[in-house]
């Protein structure tokens, strides 16, 4: 009898081990697939911004976008990831209430340095950290790319790259540590809940862009002496609209990577997927809500503008407006919020333009304003829901005040560094290209190749000035 029980226990242990391996392999594959999907976001931003540029600037805008991605990966590897695990309780390296933050924890995963670097390579001890890190690194790159479109056609490449590093490997990471981490003080003290990062990615990036735009100034010819604005059209609206649709496609990967699936030691629960806060989530909910949010955003913008550029911008606004609560909302409510967001983007962009801000692609409004709107809407519709793992009453709960406070913090995390860093660069002469270069075009001065055949490019300056 005892031998049979021992044999049974051995078989159970083997099955559990096999199940653990299967879960880990699924988790690795899941996050591995989110990375190329999020690469589509950068393909989209590349097309979007090059299409929104005039022909004399098209390659310069492309180079800038490529550099935004390229510099995010090593800088996030060497210090961005460390910031996320070290600073959830504030600007100190103190340990949080759940014991998964602070100096000791951050040092253990300081990927690029010391003993921990051995785990970030070809080894069989840790098969999961690389893909999980890769998903977060693509979040960082996405944040930098959100900002890049607003400043096209007049920013210096080096100045832009410095701003992108500050935003992508520090500003949003601080916001994520505070509002997207179980030890984050916005979560534990205020019940912040921002499942798919409406505030801590989009609002941070949008208001960082605003801080830079104030110091960068408008493109030559954008505003008249009486303050009225001129429309400066990009050279290829179909490319821009297609780029926007590719960005929307890539956001499926972005939202997938916001889900914690069972595997290794990172999941709150072995029974099913959760949000990054440990609260339950299903891919079914995401499927319903993302589709409804894209449709609602397009419809709202179409009702207000009939303009294909703003319709596809409305699709982005629709996703962002419900991103904080994709794990909580029902599809009907998702659609209503998204329609309202689609109707808001154009008038909000016009309001900003009337105040002398030249945001070339509307990033401040689409990502910044709508990101704040999405955070606050969750406080309106989901107050009382658990913000963190545990039943209501045993864990921080979502509240309107908590979401407002969180949104204000996210705005500050973006705007203040954006303004300060760009002001320093401006005083050093590293922010804006010289007037003659801007008039002639950044491509002839900065890029050793041509974007279009010579016959087209030869007539471009007459049409583009």
Write down how many β-strands occur, each being a DSSP E stretch of 2 or more residues: 0
The CATH superfamily name is Ammonium transporter AmtB like domains
Query: N-to-C SSE series?
Result: HHHHHHHHHHHHHHHH
Per the CATH scheme, the topology name is Ammonium transporter fold
Give the C-alpha Rg.
23 Å
Indicate the overall shape.
globular
**How many domains is the backbone divided into?**
1
How many helical elements? 16
Structural class: mainly alpha
Top CATH class = Mainly Alpha
Provide the descriptors you would attach to this structure in a database record.
single chain; 465 residues; mainly alpha; Ammonium transporter fold; 16 helices; disordered C terminus
Characterization of this structure:
By secondary structure, this protein is an all-alpha fold. It has a single domain, classed as Orthogonal Bundle (Ammonium transporter fold), CATH 1.10.3430.10. It has 16 helices and no strands. The longest helix has 51 residues, at 2-52. The termini are far apart.
Task: Write the SSE topology.
Elements: H1 2-52, H2 58-86, H3 103-108, H4 129-148, H5 157-179, H6 185-190, H7 198-216, H8 237-256, H9 283-305, H10 308-322, H11 331-353, H12 363-381, H13 400-427, H14 435-440, H15 442-446, H16 454-464
Helix pairs in contact: 1-2, 1-4, 1-8, 2-4, 2-5, 4-5, 4-7, 5-7, 5-13, 7-12, 7-13, 8-9, 8-10, 9-10, 9-11, 10-11, 10-12, 11-12, 12-13
